[in-house]
């Protein structure tokens, strides 16, 4: 698939921007702060309904404006769809496909699939488990957009059950019956999410190992594995029924502790994706270059997996070449030049390997000009 056209209005620093793209390589070049990342962030928003830089929508709306609009024409196997999103802070966003409104913004998920790699991705290796859970859930949702709904259901149940745990004062209170009901909901949605994550990690692992070996051939081998908060009770396989039963049993076992502490101690929101280089965990041990390469390998692994499953995603490389040494740049260029479409941002054109010749856009003073 590829993006043929991107238009934004009042998005980040852009009052208005209009870019026509083609398959193959496009490079956005401009000095720091000219708005290059803002443009690829807008595309990322169309693909995931979120930003890789901020957790809320407010910073995406241009300062002084009340709403932002992003419009993308996406071509997939010869068929073009126009996605339009209107982002309003503090209110529900609105979405249209081919100029017709759709019931919910998440109905546009799946039309554009992207894999975006950015400097912030160092947090995949060095940051909290939440960063890695978000990575997994994003790929899960890219594979099957209906998981956006599963994730929303799980989050809702978690919040309500958490609120209930804080009000239940003793193991004999009247609210216990209600807690049983919420345990059931948590186990059901949790098992669905968990099964999808486990299936993903199993499928992703060989791609990540291969991508890392390619980017950093002289380093120790990279390995990923899923760590579940189920501990001993973890069945280890993506069998939904078994996972639901294990979650329910564990919720029962931990009930007294949960009531004492007023927090939900078991479920996919407590899990992690563990990263190893050789025998050692990457977090806390890997060098800067190794951490960076591992983060890149996670993204590229995801990209290769999605590509192998059909419906090749658009590859977005935000400001990555400046961080890599010459060997790693060349390896990344090899992957990128085989992509159906790759969008690259760079402050300095010379940082982009010369084998990635494509269309160049100059981004300057609030304008984008095709060079
Ligand atoms: N909501 C907003 N309203 C107005 N301006 C904004 C908003 N959000 C970000 N900006 C501005 O956008 C600019 C940053 O844009 P962006 O991150 O796209 O730069 P860039 O070209 O990628 O730079 P670099 O090369 O440093 O990565 C900053 O000057 C920032 O102040
Ligand atoms: Mg940038």
From TrEMBL:
<dbReference type="GO" id="GO:0009432">
    <property type="term" value="P:SOS response"/>
</dbReference>
<keyword id="KW-0067">ATP-binding</keyword>
<dbReference type="Pfam" id="PF02463">
    <property type="entry name" value="SMC_N"/>
</dbReference>
<dbReference type="GO" id="GO:0003697">
    <property type="term" value="F:single-stranded DNA binding"/>
</dbReference>
<feature type="binding site">
    <location>
        <begin position="30"/>
        <end position="37"/>
    </location>
    <ligand>
        <name>ATP</name>
    </ligand>
</feature>
<dbReference type="GO" id="GO:0005524">
    <property type="term" value="F:ATP binding"/>
</dbReference>
<protein>
    <recommendedName>
        <fullName>DNA replication and repair protein RecF</fullName>
    </recommendedName>
</protein>
<dbReference type="InterPro" id="IPR001238">
    <property type="entry name" value="DNA-binding_RecF"/>
</dbReference>
<keyword id="KW-0235">DNA replication</keyword>
<dbReference type="GO" id="GO:0006302">
    <property type="term" value="P:double-strand break repair"/>
</dbReference>
<dbReference type="InterPro" id="IPR018078">
    <property type="entry name" value="DNA-binding_RecF_CS"/>
</dbReference>
<keyword id="KW-0963">Cytoplasm</keyword>
<comment type="similarity">
    <text>Belongs to the RecF family.</text>
</comment>
<dbReference type="GO" id="GO:0006260">
    <property type="term" value="P:DNA replication"/>
</dbReference>
<comment type="function">
    <text>The RecF protein is involved in DNA metabolism; it is required for DNA replication and normal SOS inducibility. RecF binds preferentially to single-stranded, linear DNA. It also seems to bind ATP.</text>
</comment>
<keyword id="KW-0238">DNA-binding</keyword>
<keyword id="KW-0234">DNA repair</keyword>
<dbReference type="InterPro" id="IPR042174">
    <property type="entry name" value="RecF_2"/>
</dbReference>
<feature type="domain" description="RecF/RecN/SMC N-terminal">
    <location>
        <begin position="2"/>
        <end position="350"/>
    </location>
</feature>
<dbReference type="GO" id="GO:0005737">
    <property type="term" value="C:cytoplasm"/>
</dbReference>
<dbReference type="GO" id="GO:0000731">
    <property type="term" value="P:DNA synthesis involved in DNA repair"/>
</dbReference>
<keyword id="KW-0742">SOS response</keyword>
<dbReference type="InterPro" id="IPR027417">
    <property type="entry name" value="P-loop_NTPase"/>
</dbReference>
<keyword id="KW-0547">Nucleotide-binding</keyword>
<keyword id="KW-0227">DNA damage</keyword>
<dbReference type="InterPro" id="IPR003395">
    <property type="entry name" value="RecF/RecN/SMC_N"/>
</dbReference>
């Amino acid at each position: 698939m590829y993006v043929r056209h991107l238009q934004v209005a009042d998005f980040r620093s852009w009052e208005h921007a209009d870019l026509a793209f083609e398959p193959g390589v496009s490079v956005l070049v401009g000095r720091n702060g000219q708005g290059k990342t803002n443009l690829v962030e807008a595309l990322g928003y169309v693909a995931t309904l979120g930003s890789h830089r901020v957790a809320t929508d407010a910073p995406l709306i241009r300062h002084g404006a009340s709403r932002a609009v992003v419009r993308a024409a996406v071509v997939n196997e010869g068929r073009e769809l126009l996605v339009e999103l209107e982002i309003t802070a503090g209110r529900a966003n609105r979405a249209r496909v081919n100029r017709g409104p759709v019931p919910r913004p998440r109905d546009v998920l799946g039309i554009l699939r992207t894999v975006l790699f950015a400097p912030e991705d160092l947090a995949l290796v060095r940051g909290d488990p939440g960063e890695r859970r978000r990575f997994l859930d994003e790929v899960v949702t890219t594979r099957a957009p209906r998981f956006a709904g599963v994730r929303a259901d799980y989050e809702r149940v978690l919040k309500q059950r958490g609120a209930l745990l804080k009000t239940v004062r003793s193991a004999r209170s009247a609210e216990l019956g209600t807690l049983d009901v919420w345990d059931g909901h948590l186990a059901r949605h949790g098992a669905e999410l968990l099964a999808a994550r486990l299936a993903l990690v199993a499928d992703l692992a060989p791609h990540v190992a291969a991508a890392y070996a390619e980017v950093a051939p002289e380093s120790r081998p990279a390995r990923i594995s899923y760590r579940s908060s189920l501990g001993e009770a973890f069945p280890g396989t993506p069998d939904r029924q078994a996972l639901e039963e294990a979650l329910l049993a564990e919720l029962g076992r931990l009930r007294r502790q949960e009531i004492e502490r007023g927090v939900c101690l078991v479920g996919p929101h407590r899990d992690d994706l563990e990263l190893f280089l050789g025998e050692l965990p990457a977090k806390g041990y890997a060098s800067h270059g190794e951490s960076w390469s591992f983060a890149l390998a996670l993204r590229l692994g995801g990209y290769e997996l999605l590509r192998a499953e059909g419906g090749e995603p658009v590859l977005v490389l935000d400001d990555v070449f400046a961080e890599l040494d010459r060997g790693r740049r060349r390896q990344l260029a090899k992957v990128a030049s085989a992509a159906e479409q790759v969008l690259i941002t760079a402050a300095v054109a010379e940082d982009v390997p010369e084998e990635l010749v494509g269309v160049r856009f100059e981004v300057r003073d609030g304008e984008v000009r095709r060079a």
